[in-house]
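Retro notes
What went well: the complex prediction finally ran end to end.
Inputs used:
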Amino acid sequence: MKLTFRWYGDSDPVSLEKISQIPTMTGIVSAVYDVKPGGVWSEESILKIKEDAAKHGLDFEVVESVPVPEDIKLGNEKAPQLIENYCENVRRLGKAGVKCICYNFMPVFDWLRSELEHQQADGANALAYDEQTVLAMNPLTSELSLPGWDASYNKEELKELLNAYAKLGEEGLWKNLETFLKAVIPVAVESGVNMAIHPDDPPWGMFGLPRIITGKENLKRFFDIVPVTNNGLTLCTGSFGANPDNDLVDMVNSFADRIHFVHLRNIKHTGKRKFEEVGHPTECGSVDMYGIAKALVKNGFDGYVRPDHGRMIWGEKGRYGYGLFDRALGATYLAGLFEALEKENR
Ligand code: DNO
């Protein structure tokens, strides 16, 4: 596996130099951040990331994310042009040496939490989710808003979007995903890029919003839409792992050839549809990190891995989930775990 680290560009308080000092780090996962979803990324901006990374001995082979605009997910009249723009981004990224593009097909919200600074017994704080709190904040019926919500929509726009998705429903969303994949995957094949969809986080719907990348059955349906390896997955262990019914080791064994990128993080279930993020090692939470890594190695996985969401420890303040310290600890844990497994597997 190739160990990577997410970098949010020049505004990221975690510098490329710091990232390069983490033992065995091979590259960064990044994106062009100054273009709105749906726009085409300039070749200069893409190459600038690559050059900045190279100055620190880091590769830039993974993009997270090329965001999919709501108009594509809703399949409205703007969708065909926006899909064409998306394909152009795939071509440009492939040309610049990017090998893997992570994206998601979650309506309106990306990851959703009820708390961003959940206090833990050891003095750390972390992201947490409690369904009761989330449901009490339904934007259609209450004034409250959750942390991490996209502030670029005003309340009316948000209501309109939620209503449009409620009307679309799961089958409608599947249909629009199919249109997207049938256009984008052939371009990815030509460009030498693996597309890697990120699961819904958490992997269930809320506020009437359909969510479809949630578990094994739906993944099977997803892979069958365009049955080539370039139509692949970002296996995010914390996202799928939020549902205790998801057997992640089985997912790895079933879909190994489609897994191009792995977000390895741990969460702890604290109740029904209630969890908090914890340190990366298996014994810190409910996800079998060892079992998942073992299954990846056994299946010959040679894609990209990154530590995901760290807690805030040692007084660090920063971008929620994306501080330096706990993710760096996660990275070294993962490096050790994979070193042992890969050597044993030889
Ligand atoms: C959360 C991340 C997600 C991920 C996107 C991919 O921290 O794992 O925001 O980047 O869902 O499109």
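What we learned: The first helix runs from residue 16 to 20.
What to try next: split runs per interface for comparison.
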